[in-house]
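INFO  loader      accepted 1 record
INFO  loader      residues=140
INFO  predictor   begin
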Amino acid sequence: MNTLLTSLPKSAPLPRYATRLLGAVLSASAYAVCVPWDLRNRAETPGAIDETSPVSAAGVTFLALALIALAAYFGIRDRLAWTLLVVAAPPATLLYASLSSHPTQDANAWPVVWAFFTLVLGAGVLVAGAVGRQFARRNG
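INFO  predictor   done
INFO  writer      dumping tokens
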């Protein structure tokens, strides 16, 4: 159990980078499971004016909880810059790929949407990582 909380910068290179890679895979997997790939809005029924999105509140909530948990864990074990790269970069990259893959861009607003959600994601990861770091310092 103690090896799961040791400082990554002080560990050997292979376990350090394997742990970081596993964290990035978990972060990307959480995004892929919780947020559907095709983010375009759809009509609720054929011919309806109201649109619905395949993104659900439950999916976003589970994604946020998973990323907060990962950020806190990597905040305890690693530097904040690595925490940001490991936890926030994979979902931000997948969101960019998803939004930019649409054949027709809705008024070309997707770059602004991507930038906003990337900033929110990054800020959340940094806060959770900083809280994790403070927790590690007090208990370590």
